[in-house]
Amino acid sequence: MTRLAAVLGSPIGHSKSPKLHGYWLRKYNIDGHYVPLHVDPENLENMLNILPQIGFQGVNITIPHKESVLKFSDEITQSAKAIGAANTLTFQNGKIKADNTDGYGFIQNIHQMAPDWNFAGNIALVLGAGGAARAVIWSLLQSGVDNIILSNRTQSRAEDLQNLFGSKIIVAEWSNIEKYVDQIDLLVNTTSLGMIGQPDLKFDLQKINQNVLVTDIIYTPLQTQLLKDAKNRGCITVDGLGMLLHQAAPGFEAWFGQRPTIDSDVRTHILS
Length: 272
Ligand code: ATR
Description:
This protein has 9 helices and 12 strands. It is α/β, with parallel strands linked by helices and 272 residues long.
């Protein structure tokens, strides 16, 4: 039986997921298809009723449905609950299981690219307080970081995340973030600053220590100005492409029965 999966979103044309899953389907010689489906909010519930009935194993969920999809799900994993959003649904025995693998993807990317790096006991500076930041913060807390200094242009959004995640989160003013730079072990950009078409993140790294790990969840471009500056300062840098690849792996395995390997070939393919 041909296995089917999809990514649901609006807009959906920019999604890299069809290219990624299509690559793995060919690589592992699996009889399956993965398609992008443009779904507007008013059609989401109907779509989730129909897809399992016509043979879909599950779907990825992207903007703007990641939060709203939870109310149509029967089972919600601990990560999806804590993050308040889901990106991976599996259809099983008439039920919808919702998971969030973004935080997992974020951590696995760093494990793979910087295998000697340890999160435990560290102080992280996280920039941004959107949906991506929620997944990153949850996964950093799970991985044992001591404190997270959180800064966002709109401070109230950072304070909302502090209320959600508790006293390990320290909110810092956006205009004053550089003052923390010499105290941190990890710097994560979850804002859209530095992405193609957006202004660069202006961040003075002069006082950053050399053993700090700097990572960006952006992967267009792969080497953001932040990562270039960090590399020039002698920091360890990890680009955001691996987060995309690793977050996709659990869904692919659940729907198509094969855990995909994340290697340089798939990175090259996605960038081509
Ligand atoms: P996502 O779900 O991908 O995290 P989002 O919720 O739109 O997307 O969040 C985007 C993040 O980038 C936010 O932290 C946003 O800051 P605000 O909460 O103040 O909007 C940040 N961001 C986007 N453009 C920015 C800019 N020009 N300067 C500073 N921060 C910016």
